Amino acid sequence: MSQIVLGIESSCDETAAAVLAADGRILSELVLSQIADHAPWGGVVPEIAARAHLAALPELAREALRQAGVGYANLGAIAATAGPGLIGGLLVGTGFAKGAAIAAGRPYIAINHLEAHALTARLPGLSAAQPQFPYLLLLLSGGHSQCVVVEGVGRYHKLGTTLDDAVGEAFDKTAKLLGLPYPGGPALEALAREGDAHAYPLPRPLLHRPGCDFSFSGLKTAVAQLAAAQGTTALPRPLAANIAASFQAAVTDILADRLANAFARRPDVSAVIIAGGVAANTAIRTRLDTLCAAQGKTLIAPPLRLCTDNAVMVAWAGVERLRAGLTDPLTAPCKPRWPL
Ligand code: KG4
Ligand code: ZN
Fold first, then answer.
1. In this predicted structure, what is the pLDDT of residue 49?
2. Could you say which ligand is closest to the alpha carbon of residue 141?
3. What is the dihedral of CA 267, 271, 273, 279, to 10 degrees?
4. Of 29, 30, 106, 183, which one's alpha carbon is 20 to 30 angstroms from that of 18?
5. Residue 43: which H helix or E strand, with range?
């Protein structure tokens, strides 16, 4: 029986479909971003997201199969993100996947989005050697900030999470305060290159404290106060650049400190995978890479298109689950909140 898997992702503002062969070869991968639909509102609007997924998904999946040169009848399983995420988008993606599973007479696999990020590192060809369990996942996205030990397929141990904002959210909110467009992370990083990271001694919540939890809201508040103290709505660019650079340096310090604590707690992990949009940040990547090298660990930073939300990771989690015989009934629910 074929083990080709179609993966569907629709948990936030990307509609994505990908087809993977049983050995993990990517036969096709498509992502449609809804950023332009949400930009006027300065953030993701759930209702708009759900409608956009519904409009795009049938044709996107058809095109992914066409590019892979397979039909529904050739599939071994259909996998879709079933949570965590926005319920409207999840219902669209899983509803589509279940319909396809019924039509093709093939199993359905409900994928945890966080698990999909966690298992991406094992995609063949991504790193010199496929990381062996256990390894660490540092998930740094707009919706999640988590430090997780990946013990095996379906076996995860959370070491820490954010106590308030996700790290990407902190980037986006700070960028907004600095007058930058949504999504603010990339714009803030670009502006930070012009600034002095030592210009402002911003707080670094939880630094040097035990554990692997994150906190960013105090940092964001400090930036808000700094910006307000300038008494003008449009900050002069050099000043905004100094704030951006100081903010980025604080976030980088926090992440490095938390990762060092994770190594102390779990010296048995040999590799770290970073995922989520913030993993695109060069200053953060470089700092975490240096820390990993100093501790004899391998940092795996997948190419950006596989770090941010995509369907290759969903299909790959499907391949791993199918191999392990882990399929789901069509009654499997969507779970907007679904901790690993
Ligand atoms: O994983 P992702 O694409 O989407 C979800 O969160 O679902 O992450 C998006 C987040 C946004 O908050 C965005 O501002 C942030 O990642 N981001 C960055 C960078 N590129 C994207 N943050 C900092 N530096 C970047 N270069
Ligand atoms: Zn994600």
1. 95
2. 1
3. 80
4. 183
5. none
Q: Which residue CA neighbors atom 10 of ligand 1 most closely?
A: 142
**Domains of the chain listed by start with CATH number:** 5-120+309-323 (3.30.420.40), 127-301 (3.30.420.40)
In angstroms, rounded to a whole number, what is the distance separating the alpha carbons of residues 251 and 67? 40
Copy the structure tokens of residue 126.
């991504």
Find, among 247, 301, 292, 288, the residue nearest to 269 by Cα: 292
**Which residues line the pocket of ligand 1, CB cutoff 6 A?**
12, 141-143, 168, 171-172, 183-186, 189, 276-278, 280-281, 308-309
Place of tokens 């926005």: 86
ipTM of the complex: 0.98
Beta carbons of 216 and 170 less than 8 angstroms apart: yes
Q: Which of 141, 273, 285, 306 to mutate to test the pocket of ligand 1 (most atoms within 8 A of CB)?
A: 141
Phi/psi region, residue 105 (left: phi>0; alpha: psi -120 to 50; beta: rest), is: left
Low-confidence ranges of the chain (pLDDT < 50): none
Task: Look up residue 220 and give its DSSP letter.
Answer: H
Distance between CA atoms of 317 and 297, rounded to whole angstroms? 24
- The CA–CA distances, whole Å, from 331 to 17, 167, 175, 326, 328 equal 22, 34, 42, 15, 8
Query: Is 113 annotated for ligand binding?
Result: yes
How many whole angstroms from 141 Cα to the centroid of ligand 1? 5
Which atom of ligand 1 is the closest one to the Cα of 307?
1
Does the pTM of the predicted model rise above 0.95? no
Half-sphere exposure of 88 (CA within 13 A, CB side): 16
Neighbours of ion ligand 2 (CB under 5 A): 141, 309
Q: Check the annotation: does 24 bind a ligand.
A: no
pLDDT digits (tens, 9 = 90+) for 242-258: 999 999 999 999 999 99
Q: Is 139 known to sit in a ligand binding site? A: yes
